[in-house]
Amino acid sequence: MYTNDWVLQEFSDAPFADNRLNERLIKIANSFYESPESSIPQACKSYAATQAAYRFFSNNKVEPEAILMNHREETIQRMRKYDTVLAIQDTTTLDYKDHPATKGLGICGNTEHDLGLLNHTTLAVTVDGIPLGILSRHVWTRDPKELGKRVTKRKRSTSNKESQKWLDALDSSLKDIPKHINVVTVCDREADIYDFFHKAVSEERHLLVRVTQKRRILENGNYLVQEIENSPVMGQILTNIPRDTENKRPPREATLSIKYCPITIRPPVQRKDSKLLPNLKLYLVLAEEVTPPEGVTPIYWLLLTTLPVESIEQAVEKIKWYRQRWKIERYHFTLKSGCNIEELQLETIENLQNALAVYSIVAWKLLWLKLESEQNPEASCDIVLQEHEWQALYCVTNRVPTPPTQPPTLQEAVLMIAKLGGFLGRKCDGKPGVKVMWRGLRRLTDITQGWLVARLPVYYQ
Question: Which residues does 285 contact at the CB level (< 8 Å), separation at least 6?
Fold first, then answer.
């Protein structure tokens, strides 16, 4: 079996003392990429390879951090090409209640029956939305003793709550990143925490967070939401709103009015140490939909940032950056639905975490392929496909015996892959989604194997 070039780039220098572990990791990652939605035995294609994968995941010399280390270094190298990169944080729940035999599973929901893991990822993304790789990843479970203690949690410091994940991820995601790269951490409403902003301001790091604490009291005694709604409208923009998969709504355009203002927030009054904590000077941006379609909840993005917002251009920039936050939701969708990681059946949580580390990189590559083809459709497909791959793809999908001398464009190649996965390509179908992409990749693997075998030299005696 041939090995994809990108697999060698992302996995070949994993810091294992035994080189045989590196070789096995490359084979496993290559198999997972070529059959992302398959079970481990289906992806490995043979009993021997399947057993070798299980032995790798159970090896006490293998850890998720080691699997991810080389990929993170490659991610930072990709980041060097850009002046500004978005580090998008988010958490997703991995449900394993149907696999209770896995030893070490904990609580991932609000009841003792919700067995699984919580996975918090920081994804590096360009300001145009191309995912560059994973900067940090943290997996944990909830303590059953903490269930039902929401009231007492409010009185605890952030370091004693699950909210600490945002601060820890800020440290781990920005480690070793060159200072000339302007990294802006982007989060949704769950990260609207005083300590998160305090840490960022004191360490001169940049945050862009959607507000949930609208009644937070400011230095002048007003509520935060009152301050921004009393500010004048400074302009309007027309923006594209991604597809709402939860409510089954297609992508649409929205006209947003823009307000912005500087603010100074006080520390939480219920904190015992509130008098020892400083006020924080931040900036507030409001993007509010002007004429929403009937039956659709209007856009209302209230954003808090450590970055200066003193002009309409700077406000629009922050809104565009926040729009890229949904890319990590697509990443988690790819990880869970594309790679079927919630179907994994492994003996222990340690084995499971090692497998998840490999799949987390495979999911990034699948999402990158889709989004890169949309951003740079005229690029040559040889940036993702080897020569024999695009030749086999072209001949099979176009039903011709001879491939062209030049590779197709990336957009053309992705459309052909999607058609292998069941995409019809009609005008009403829009762009191919991630599901048909990974199905197409699986078929492409088999087609390419046949293509290579058919071109082996024949020797006559």
Answer: 258, 259, 260, 301, 302, 303, 305, 309, 315, 318, 319
